């Protein structure tokens, strides 16, 4: 059975994705800071049949990250790493003029440093995964410059020019095959690319996560690396960010899960995606 590590899995999007994977037969290693809610989620996940290891702890703790990967190794390996745990940096959110610097440091630790640390810990297992190898397609990469278009003024800047097909960047007529290993799914936010008042600290951390993901995809062409903006959701994180906002009309996290599963089912190329209409759409494009 395939194995996934999911951080922040006691509630919200992490729990919803864990439930969907459990129903598909995935074995899971799940984490959250609070032991009670995590064990409750784990009991529910085990009801679907898979093996589930629940390890409460803080993703900023290197020992905890090592324990998560060790648990995956005991289950047989690792095919998918989901860096879902997030921190706002201030609750409720405040303007940058009032942003506590300690809060910003905490947001960077949880949203940027911890995902990299966990990815580093898990790389040896992810590289040896064969879960996605049967999906591999080799398509020539056409453009070398980070612009789409010709030399006229219609050229549009592409912020992730090499995220579509890294193994073919040399433009060979017979491109070198790079076998696909496991996948890393980093949960981002539209605050990483849009300027929303009071979301500056959190958005800066998620923007750093996006860039980190893009570089990882270039450096590890055998992996699928997806950084995904899930869109608006009704979660405790949002309620803590903007407690006075009525979020009753916001979609539940379960509505985003099909888009994340779409990435797996289609062995989607590495890149930035947004969740839309039950599938993941490459950033800057509309669903077809």
Write up this protein.
- It is a single chain.
- The chain is of the alpha/beta class and 288 residues long.
- The chain has a single domain, classed as Rossmann fold.
- It has seven helices and ten strands.
- An eight-stranded mixed beta sheet has the order 3-2-1-4-7-8-9-10, with helices on both faces. A two-stranded antiparallel sheet has the order 5-6.
- A hairpin with a 2-residue loop joins strand 9 and strand 10.
- The protein starts with a strand and ends in a 6-residue tail after the last strand.
- About 16% of the residues have low confidence.
- It comes from Streptomyces sioyaensis.
- GO terms for molecular function: oxidoreductase activity.
- This is SDR family oxidoreductase.
């Amino acid at each position: 059975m395939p194995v996934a590590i999911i951080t922040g899995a006691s509630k919200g999007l992490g729990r919803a994705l864990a439930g969907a994977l459990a129903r598909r037969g995935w074995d899971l290693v799940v984490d959250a800071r609070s032991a009670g809610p995590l064990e409750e989620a784990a009991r529910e996940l085990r009801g679907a049949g898979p093996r589930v290891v629940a390890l409460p702890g803080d993703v900023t703790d290197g020992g905890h990250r090592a324990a998560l990967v060790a648990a995956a190794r005991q289950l047989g390996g690792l095919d998918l790493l989901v860096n879902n745990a997030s921190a706002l940096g201030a609750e409720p959110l405040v303007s940058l003029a009032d942003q506590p610097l300690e809060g910003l440091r905490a947001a960077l630790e949880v949203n940027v440093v911890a995902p990299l640390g966990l990815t580093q810990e898990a790389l040896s297992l992810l590289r040896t995964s064969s879960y996605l190898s049967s999906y591999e397609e080799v398509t020539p990469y056409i453009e070398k410059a980070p612009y789409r278009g010709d030399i006229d003024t219609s050229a549009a800047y592409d912020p992730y020019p090499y995220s579509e097909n890294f193994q073919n960047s040399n433009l060979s007529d017979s491109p070198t095959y790079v076998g696909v290993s496991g996948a890393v799914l980093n949960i981002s936010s539209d605050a990483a690319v849009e300027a929303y008042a009071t979301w500056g600290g959190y958005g800066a951390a998620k923007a750093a996560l996006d860039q980190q993901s893009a570089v990882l995809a270039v450096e590890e062409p055998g992996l699928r690396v997806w950084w995904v903006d899930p869109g608006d959701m009704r979660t405790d994180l949002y309620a803590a960010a903007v407690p006075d906002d009525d979020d009753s009309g916001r979609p539940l996290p379960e509505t985003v899960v099909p888009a994340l599963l779409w990435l797996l089912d289609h062995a989607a190329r590495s890149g930035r995606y947004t969740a839309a209409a039950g599938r993941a759409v490459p950033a800057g494009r509309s669903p077809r």
